[in-house]
Amino acid sequence: MRKILLALAFVAGCSGPPAEEPIDYVALSEAVQQSQNYALHGQTFEGAAVRLVEEGRCTVGDLASIGGFIRSDMEFPDEPVYFTYCGLTSGERASASKVYLNVQTGVIT
User: Fold this and answer.
1) Please, is 81 exposed, middle or buried when counting C-beta atoms within 10 Å of its C-beta (0-12, 13-18, 19+)?
2) What is the DSSP string of 43-61?
3) Rounded Cα distance, 108 and 102, in Å
4) Class of residue 78 by CB neighbours under 10 A (exposed 0-12, middle 13-18, buried 19+)
5) d(CA 61, CA 67)
6) Alpha helices by DSSP H, the chain
7) Is the pTM of this model over 0.85?
8) Ramachandran angles phi, psi of 108, nearest 5°
9) What confidence tens digit (pLDDT) does each residue in 58-68 have?
10) Where are the domains of the chain?
């Protein structure tokens, strides 16, 4: 039993990787509220934004800099698809990727 307690004390004293910066959900919500047609699809936009940030695909800064989600009329004229860019705030615009959200199905690609 003493060996287990010593092992637990040792593990508890070890410093792991640095803690990730907490997500500012208020700032995220404010960024997403700038989306086109937010009044119609706000809940879907909010849910998708949270997923993208929690998964590490986007940052709150990415969504704020582009203004949330924008209707993708050119690529998907007959579908309810919106886009945003992830990776804009990484400092390398070339690494930014366009992310699509179908507000009818909730699918993010």
Assistant:
1) buried
2) HHHHHHHHHHHHTTS--HH
3) 7
4) exposed
5) 10
6) 2-13, 25-32, 38-54, 60-66
7) no
8) -110, 130
9) 999 999 999 99
10) 23-102
pLDDT tens-digit series, residues 34-76: 999 999 999 999 999 999 999 999 999 999 999 999 999 999 9
Provide the token pair at 64: 């704020």
Q: Closest by alpha carbon to 71, among 93, 43, 29, 103?
A: 103
Where do we find the tokens 């009044």?
Answer: 39
Question: What sign results for the dihedral spanned by CA atoms 32, 69, 109, 42?
Answer: positive
Residue 41, classified by CB atoms within 10 Å of its CB into exposed (0-12), middle (13-18) or buried (19+), is buried
* Planar angle of CA 79, 83, 88, nearest 5 degrees: 170
Token representation of residue 87: 């990776």
pLDDT number for residue 21: 77
